[in-house]
Amino acid sequence: MIKKRMVLRFTKKTWNQPIVYRLVKEYNLAFNILKASIFPKEASLMVLEISGAETDFDRGMAYLKGCGVVYEPLEANIKKDENRCVHCGACAAVCPTEAISIQRPEMYVVFDPEKCSGCELCVKACPPRAIIATLSSQGA
Ligand code: SF4
Ligand code: SF4
Q1: Domains parsed from the chain with CATH numbers
Q2: pLDDT higher than 70, residue 140
Q3: Atom 1 (ligand 2): residue with closest C-alpha?
Q4: For the chain, does the N or the C end have fewer beta carbons within 10 angstroms?
Q5: Would the pTM of this model clear 0.70, i.e. be above it?
Q6: What is the Å distance from ligand 2's center to 110 Cα?
Q7: Is residue 128 in contact with ligand 2, taking CB distance under 6 Å?
Q8: Whose CA is nearest to atom 6 of ligand 1?
């Protein structure tokens, strides 16, 4: 099971077709709408959090491409504010990729952006809100 945030860009020819409905019906994907900017006479944009089996997700994206919908992942850029961090280790406990680890024997909590998947689990786990996530896509 995967969950990804995607930016979908529709043209004035595709915005009113039941494309997102078919992602659910025919590709077994679930979605949450995070943002929608619909302009019937211009290009429209939707930001969806899409979840489902990886094979269904890939098939669904191929379907979008075939429909002429341009899509791209919305990525979370994670930063750790060293001035706020109290090195409690709560973020390291929830990080699934070991992007956050505890450096011994000092017990410093260190962040390696190269290993970060952008899942944001650490953001909610951090008591003093020392981890900041900003969202970006290549085209946005
Ligand atoms: S966003 Fe996810 S992968 Fe990246 S540091 Fe936080 S918990 Fe780890
Ligand atoms: S949860 Fe927050 S305060 Fe605790 S180690 Fe991680 S970044 Fe620092």
Answers
A1: 2-73 (3.30.70.260), 76-136 (3.30.70.20)
A2: no
A3: 126
A4: N
A5: no
A6: 9
A7: yes
A8: 122
Read off the pLDDT of residues 87-113 as tens digits, 9 standing for 90 and up.
Answer: 999 999 998 889 999 999 999 999 999
Mean pLDDT of the chain: 89
Residue with tokens 């000092």: 106
Ligand 1 near 89 CB (within 6 A): no
CA atoms within 13 A on the CB side of 3: 8
The three-state DSSP-derived secondary structure of 75-120 is EEEEEECCCCCCCCCHHHHHCCCCCEEEECCCCEEEECHHHCCCCC
Decide whether any atom of ligand 1 lies within 6 Å of the 120 Cβ.
Answer: yes
Which strands sit side by side in the sheet containing 70-73, from one edge to the other?
30-37, 44-52, 2-10, 70-73
Q: What is the mean pLDDT of residues 61-85?
A: 92
